[in-house]
Amino acid sequence: MSRRSETLLWVAQRASAAVLALCVLVHLATIIYAVQGGLTGAEILARTRGNTAWFAFYTVFVLAVAVHAPIGLRVVLAEWFGWRGRARDFALIAFAVVLAGMGFQAVRGVYA
Amino acid sequence: MSRTLALAHRLSGIALAIFLPAHFWVLSRALELDAFLAWTEQPAVKAAEWGLVTLLALHLAGGVRVLMLEFLPWREWAKGLAALAAGFAVAAGLAFALAL
Amino acid sequence: MSAVLKVRVWRGGARGAYREYEVPRRESQTVLDVVTHIQRALDPTLAYRYACRVGMCGSCAMTVNGAPRWTCRTHVDTVARDGRLAIGPLRNLPVIRDLVADMREFFDKWARAQGQFKGRRTRADDFERIFPESEARRRADAAIECIGCGVCYAACDVVAANPAYLGPAALNRAWTLVNDARDAAQSERLRAVAGDDASLACHTHMSCTERCPKALSPTAGIAGLKRAISRAALQGKL
Q: What gap in Å lies between CA B60 and CA B99, rounded to an integer?
């Protein structure tokens, strides 16, 4: 991979990290708040069903995760498992697609 | 201190990457959410949830530390960020445990 | 305080073993004093490096109780727990013999990071004006005192995990030159420090900054390089 591409991957990682920092803070706060007094499916869905704000929020969250996690794993695979090269990168692209796909299913599941 | 946090940051990232597909899968089957939530009442699952929340907070804190070190002008207090990050993760884990 | 130190010293090359020596303990003794005593009084076959012995040259850098240090500036009292010491060659470098590490790859990487100054002017031109208080010069000056001792390189976890990683010293030097307005090799240098085996590989463990005997911060310089190459990549200039 060219130096320019590697650098742009790094930029994407940091940019998605910044987005996730906000998303995760909101998510953590929501969890800690929601979990008090027990958690039911009805409670979760009452918050998310038909709510476009949550839909938008979680869509952004899923997209950021789909960018951030594979790029993060890329380094781990190289340093700890010695896996470098095209095959690794294709596997990670596939993982990104899976994350995005499953993520959107989840968002739809709690919104629809 | 920074080396330990960095290792925790990496391990938590890996754990989260493994956890997320399962998390997405459960949520996509929203109609069966209550049945699933009943299963999560078990203490072992609650402990695992606490673990995940702590790992998430740890990964967030470690990540914010990296962003600060890489993008903010260098200052002496940068050396103390690792301890701060660890502290945040502990606090988040505690808050979750208390909320349960 | 014990009267005698039990000192384990690495003997051999890549393969070898620690051998134990008993060294009389003295006041204000440094680890270099200990190694020198072993070689002069106990075992003349011990190979080690030193030069100035006053903390200026960096030649005496070794691993002491697991951490890379200048042995001439390490008092035994600071590191000898229960009167015990373990001394080995610097980590992350091939061992020539005993306490002597092969520094070639350290300096090769320095060159690969474009760590050499390339001037633009000749003797026929006027002097370039550099203001010491300018932001760029301050940044360069904050990192310029590196004497290439290798302690940061030995301390770095990424160097240990990735043999191709250029390492903190080479990148720190490149950073001083990136901030040098007189230098003509800026685009080559940015290309040299971009990529998975260069500045992007740093994970900010900060072992380099923690251990640098001159209190430099390669972490800060590498962060600066990351920003510089990101800007260049986004502008299509990399």
A: 20
Least CB-CB distance to B71: which of C203, C209, C227? C227
Q: Cβ of C162 and A78 within 8 Å?
A: yes
End-to-end CA distance of chain B, in Å?
30
Q: How far is A2 from chain B (nearest CA, A)?
A: 22
Chain B residues in contact with A28 (beta carbon < 8 A):
53, 56-57, 60, 92
Classify domain A3-111 by CATH number: 1.20.1300.10
- Bridge-based pairing state of the strands C95-97 and C84-88: unpaired
- Look at C204 and B6 and tell me if their CB atoms are within 8 Å: yes
My answer on whether C93 and C114 are in the same domain is: no
Tokens of C208: 């380099």
Give yes or no: residues C148 and C110 share one domain.
yes
Task: For residue range A24-63, list pLDDT tens digits in order.
Answer: 999 988 888 888 877 777 788 888 888 889 999 999 999 9
Residues C126 and C222 in one domain: yes
Pairwise CB contact (< 8 Å): C204 & B71: no
Based on the fold, state whether residues C9 and C121 are members of the same structural domain: no
> CA angle C93-C195-C113, nearest 5°?
55
Query: Is residue C25 located within the same domain as residue C139?
Result: no
Query: Which CATH class name applies to B2-99?
Result: mainly alpha
pLDDT in tens, B7-28: 999 999 999 999 999 999 888 8
* Domains: count for chain C: 2
H/E segment holding residue C128: none
- Interface of C to B at Cβ within 8 Å reads 157, 203-207, 209-210, 217, 219-220, 223, 226-227
Closest CA to A108 of A64, A65, A45, A66: A45
Instruction: Check CB contact under 8 Å for C200 and A79.
Output: no
pTM for the full predicted model: 0.91
Domain limits, chain B? 2-99
Question: Can you give the residue range of the structural domain that contains C118?
Answer: 104-234
Predicted ipTM of the assembly: 0.88
26-45 in chain B: CB under 8 A from chain C: none
pLDDT over 90, % of chain B: 37
Q: Based on the domain organization, do C113 and C206 belong to the same domain?
A: yes
